[in-house]
């Protein structure tokens, strides 16, 4: 691909991505073409000698791709873009000017690890950041996932829920929503083990559903019986077998967490 074609596609990508709202379909098409162009010119991964401007453009294309992936809810695509960006964030960090998108993307990667319950990887990645601990605490893009991890370990789920509105970038909300989905299923399993039924209002509060319609959809997915007239939800149990399942889940969860702690230490 000729240099002028690459430049034209890059300018088109910037317009499509930065416009309000972003043209995500157009961005996807342009990103596929631009990545091929970067491969052909030896910029993906970077090989040989390149001028500074070309490296900055290549990094910017991949960063837009990382954000585009989250906006289209394509986590595997985000993983690929983040992996490709590592060359620019590490090998070329001494010659490239700082990128304003680097730490937002690094923060998104940390939250992604949390959503996948990869706690050991989370801590390893955090420790490998080229920043001292006090600088991480002062960086809103990194402090946000650090706080989320602490609140998850504490079981402070209300703080995780409130963190959605405190997200330093819109893309962070996608992963916080994913975390809340996991948390709701954990809470639901405990409710099923501890209660035969609950008032709808109480169930919605415990599960952090601001709208009753959201609770009703969730109840249907879990196979709960809802009585709108009485305003209650009943947790269907299948004899002793149903009672034992939550215990097994709790034991498995505790063992998994213990293994994660061993890896961290």
Automatic annotation (TrEMBL):
Swiss-Prot/TrEMBL GO biological process terms: proteasome-mediated ubiquitin-dependent protein catabolic process
Superkingdom of the source species: Eukaryota
Domain PCI: 76-252
An annotated GO cellular component: cytosol
Alphabetic keyword roster: Proteasome
Protein family membership: Belongs to the proteasome subunit S14 family.
Protein's name in the database: CSN8/PSMD8/EIF3K family protein
Taxonomic source organism: Lyophyllum shimeji
Gene symbol of the encoding locus: RPN12
């Amino acid at each position: 691909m000729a240099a002028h074609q690459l430049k034209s596609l890059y300018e088109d990508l910037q317009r499509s991505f930065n416009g309000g709202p972003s043209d995500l379909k157009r961005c996807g098409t342009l990103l596929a073409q631009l990545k091929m162009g970067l491969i052909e010119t030896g910029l993906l991964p970077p090989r040989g000698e390149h001028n500074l401007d070309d490296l900055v453009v290549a990094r910017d294309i991949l960063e837009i791709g990382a954000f585009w992936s989250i906006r289209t809810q394509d986590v595997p695509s985000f993983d690929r873009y983040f992996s490709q960006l590592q060359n620019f964030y590490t090998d070329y960090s001494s010659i490239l000017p700082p990128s304003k998108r680097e730490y937002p993307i690094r923060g998104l990667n940390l939250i992604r690890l949390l959503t996948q319950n990869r706690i050991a990887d989370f801590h390893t990645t955090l420790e490998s950041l080229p920043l001292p601990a006090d600088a991480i605490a002062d960086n809103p893009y990194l402090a946000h996932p650090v706080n989320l991890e602490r609140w998850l370990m504490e079981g402070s789920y209300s703080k995780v829920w409130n963190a959605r509105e405190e997200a330093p970038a819109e893309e962070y909300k996608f992963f916080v929503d994913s975390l809340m989905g996991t948390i709701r299923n954990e809470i639901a399993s405990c409710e099923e083990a501890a209660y035969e039924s609950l008032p709808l209002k109480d169930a919605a509060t415990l599960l952090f559903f601001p709208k009753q319609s959201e609770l009703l959809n969730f109840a249907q997915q879990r196979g709960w019986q809802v009585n709108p007239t009485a305003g209650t939800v009943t947790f269907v149990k299948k004899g002793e077998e149903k009672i034992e399942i939550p215990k097994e889940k709790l034991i498995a969860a505790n063992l998994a967490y213990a293994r994660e702690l061993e890896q961290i230490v």
